[in-house]
Design goal:
The complex is a heterodimer. By secondary structure, chain A is mainly alpha-helical. Chain A has six helices and two strands, in the order E-E-H-H-H-H-H-H. Chain B has helices spanning about 5-140, 145-155, 160-170, 185-195, 230-250, and strands spanning about 175-180, 200-205, 215-220, 220-225. In chain B, helix 4 (about 185-195) links the parallel strand 1 and strand 2. In chain B, helix 1 (about 5-140) packs across helix 5 (about 230-250) and helix 2 runs parallel beside helix 4. Classes of the chains: A mainly alpha, B alpha+beta.
Amino acid sequence: MEMTPDETTLFTVWGVGINETVGYTWIVMILLTVASMVITRNLRPDVPPNRWRTTLEVIVTAIQSQIEEISPRASRHVLYFSGTLFLFIAFSNLLLVVPGFTPPTASLSTTAALALSVLIAVPLFGITRQGIGGYLKTYVQPSVVMLPFNIISEFSRGISLAIRLYGNVMSGAVIAGILLSIAPFFFPVVMDVLGLLTGLIQAYIFAILATVYISSATATVGKPLHKEKDK
Amino acid sequence: MSIDWVTVAAQIGNFLVLVWLLKRFLYKPILNGIDAREAEIATQMGEAEVAQKKAAAAEAEFLEQKQRLLADNSAHAERIREQAEEEKDALLAATREKLEREKQDWQAHLEAEREAFIRQLHLASADTLYQLVRRALRDLADEDLEEHIALNVIGKLKPLAEELTSAAGRAEQAIATTHSPLPENTQEKMRAALERLAPGLSLSFTTDARQAPGLILRIGSVQVAWTIDSYTDELVGLLTERLAAGGSGRVNNHG
């Protein structure tokens, strides 16, 4: 039984094999980008929003409000990062219902890449907000003794994120594979529905945890910050 | 279960590209659109607030104008009422004046009619009295009234002989005017009597239907008259008094 899409080559470009993980990721990227471009191409204040634009606005403002609940002083960069995580994972998991489509999130490489992105983004957001000194100080809080534990905690976050996402998506695929061999005509439908639900929940959890980590890295004790806007 | 690190690197790259793409084509347009719409809504709310304030001001002004108009209307109505009152008074005064004038005219007319009636009564009475007396004298005493009148006048002239002579002066003609022609013998008697009083004075006789029965003698600027006017006046007075008493229901006994 095929367990990871990394090993399946979808097509080859200039002698370089593109596996299913990367290929389907590109499809998801193209779909998300094209849909965004089409919906937001005629965006003027005097034009009343249509159904699709309203849907996008609801999604974006919902993500924004979730982020603001976790971190009231969060900048828009957090929205770009966490929002993209959510949309990518959710969209990939929703495409599970498309026959022949393998979600990129079913690959441990993808979940690991996303977890690594979070792992890198957290200190970057922290440094951006507090400066290098201020951010590094957080590793010796509340005392220097905590330095190794903080470092272990930092890495374990990324690993747990990666494994959680992979495990959930992959478990769905594995269970579907097993049940498909037992009852090939009934269980796939149920499992697909279940997969949609768990896929959305995983996307939500992944994005929320990433936001929590970023907000904990960017929080400054006793120094209120104004909400940052894009330059 | 294995991790392909090349794929991991590619996916990290893909993810970063997707972040940029969504930032460029999704988040920024959507958030900017929302901000612009919020700004527009805020502007519209501000404009609405301004419009509301203007409307409130306009309403206050309208109410003030309405109050002023009502007050003006009341004053105007009061003024019109006063004018109507004045006009009514003027009309009443004019009507009263007109009525008074008509009453005066009517009274004047009544008076004129009364006078005309009395005059006619006077004439009729005089004529009737004259005829009655004349007939009575003729029937009872076989006497002529005109002759007696002429003789009575001559009798009255005797005490006035000197006055007549001086008053007549150089007058040579005396004129005797009667209501109806005098008999010839009466005329002769009067001429003879006047010749005795004023020698050289000739006497001529004329008649005047408008004159009361009797005789009027004019010598120069002197005039001696005997008519039944005084009797007629008394008769008319008595008749008028009787008529008035009859009209008012009173009975006045004049003996």
